[in-house]
Design brief:
Blueprint lengths: L1 H14 L32 E3 H8 L3 H9 L22 E3 H10 L7
Antiparallel strand pairs: 1-2
Helix pairs in contact: 2-3
């Protein structure tokens, strides 16, 4: 009997090996995974990125990048709503070229 209960515990632990442990009531669905937008041709880079991806491109936190966009330092593209043409979506997108311009503007040092 003792052997059977030890195997049951081992099987239970082995079944939980692939799970990501989250805390404080978070579910596995709430974790964000950045995936390529196009699975057919992954060599095409998107022109617009969201604030999370823009922060990753700049190497800063999401909140710092959001402050830059809210202050108007980096221009934001507000896509129109598909249901109501007078409204825009809450999701804010940023052009990659605007991020590159921002980086070039504030770049310091280097060979002169």
């Amino acid at each position: 009997m003792a052997l059977r209960s030890r195997n049951a515990k081992t099987r239970q632990r082995a079944g939980q090996a692939g799970r990501v442990r989250t805390g404080f009531g978070m579910s596995n669905r709430s974790l964000r995974v950045l995936r390529p937008t196009s699975r057919i041709n992954s060599s095409i880079e998107p022109l617009l990125v969201d604030e999370h991806q823009g922060a990753a491109l700049c190497g800063v936190s999401f909140w710092t990048f959001r402050e830059w966009t809210m202050a108007g330092i980096i221009p934001v593209v507000a896509p129109p709503s598909p249901l109501n043409h007078r409204r825009t979506l809450r999701r804010k997108l940023v052009d990659r070229r605007d991020i590159e311009t921002f980086i070039a503007t504030y770049k310091q040092g280097g060979a002169r």
